[in-house]
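Please, structure for the following, as tokens.
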Amino acid sequence: MAKPFFRLQKFLRRTQFLLFFLTAAYLMAGSLLLLQRSRLVIQQGTRGTSSIQVSPVSDMVIGVGILDTRTMQNPRLSSKLLVDMDVLHDPTSDQRYGPRWLMSRNSELRQLRRRWFHRFINEQEPMQATGSKVTQHTGENKGTYIGCFSDDSREKTLKGAVFYDLRKMTVSHCQEACAERAYTYAGLEYGAECYCGNKLPVTIARQEECNNECKGEKGSICGGVNRLSVYRVEELRAGTKRRRNVIYRGCFRAPENLTVTFSASLIQSNLTVEMCSEFCSKKEFPLAVIGGPECYCGYPTMHFTLHDSVDRLFCSRLQNTSSMAEVPREENYYRVYQTPVQDTRCTDRKFLTTKSKVFVALSSFPGAGNTWARHLIEHATGYYTGSYYFDGTLYNKGFKGEKDHWRSRRTICVKTHESGKREIEMFDSAILLIRNPYKSLMAEFNRKCAGHLGYATDRNWKSKEWPDFVNSYASWWASHVLDWLKYGKHLFVIHYEDLKQNLIPKLKEMVEFLNMTVTEDRLLCVENNRDGNFKRSGARQKDFEPFTQEMKDLINSYILTVDEALKRRNLTGLPREYVPR
């Protein structure tokens, strides 16, 4: 009997130290998390928000469980919850210290921890970059390092093209991107931004001021705060194609004063499209205008909008003498080409300097073009848009408002896919973007299967996942619009198809709704950069019809319901192409 007792005593003596260590580690981890959470709340408080507003209070209590509305994009989640969400809201749940309040507060803290984690991870990277003295500038890079230069945010010298990658930017990546577009210099800034151009910046900075480590390459420098690490780009290796993609924009009547409209010109016999495009690219202009031996470079402006093209016959009259009688002799017509140079007159963006008094939502069903609308709004107004969610892919590509707290009011508007009474009424006004449900469902399914720029495979479309997705998401498309029509305080409804077809007029209406004024030239710049970085390219959709007759009957019933609801609000009904097919 004594022997088993002795073994038990020996085992307890050995394990008590392990238990003590685990208990101490658990308490220390909890204390550190609590301190960090308190620090984050204080930081949010100094920006004018209360501690209760630090995290979104949008969790709905169902029985004894909690439904986080940020999981509403899960295709397995029944969309009926979205329709009935307003029924779940009980005013008595706001009473402090009640069971429901405690569960809601618990949810707030969970979301606070999530946001703290994202903020903590992203804050550590610049700290590490500034804390380490990295002096590597060459290594495997193909270009020649020129030096560290000051960057004027108002008038950038390297403005031929702009790229962002806040996760994987490297010196080689920036150099290759600039070399492919025939630029001479590549400059890196903030560890993640790449600028291309043909002129060196004027002001030289101290070498130690370029101290930000590249986000995608440890040990290499990618500029600093308002500081550019500049490289001279060398020729690409043999076999690597330079991207001289010159796009024909059409035949247009020449403006009244060519020298005022266009900033650079060249007259040369035997002038070719390639010669004119290369000349304008070196001058960093996005348009090359050709007429006979004359070459002009410039931007789309009020005097030359590129809106009223004419038949190509007018521009080819010199080659086709038989058509001369059909062409007015007193007018000149020119061929217009898009050079590889990016129009950078509207690429500068920033956060609002003072908090917005009006809290505006940019609401849409997933797959309805919200990211594209954000691109247009940011470039038109010059201010970042925020997001109710955090999408690392969008943040890494330049949507810096993704990282900012969605309630900070430092962004011009906030992206959301949410519906339900409480989620809608927290906004003062909203832009409601509606897209054809057939196109929206396919776009969102592509995103879920292959990301923002990819396409779902044939195997995805023919799997059981696609019909389940349609059954779940089709009703959400309808309930999303109906909820915003019911609970939205001040709505501006715009259809994706109208925005795509009449970009400038519709974008101007959106900007006016946001209480902003922009110049006509800036809007024309947005039109010149209309696609942004998130337009799907490559193979088109499959030949077969992805929607069965049962799916069509379901979706068509929702189309008719939404159309009637819009007309009851004295709003324009759905476009004709939505009509059941």
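The CA atoms of residues 179 and 511 lie 36 Å apart. Residues 2-46 form the longest helix (45 residues).
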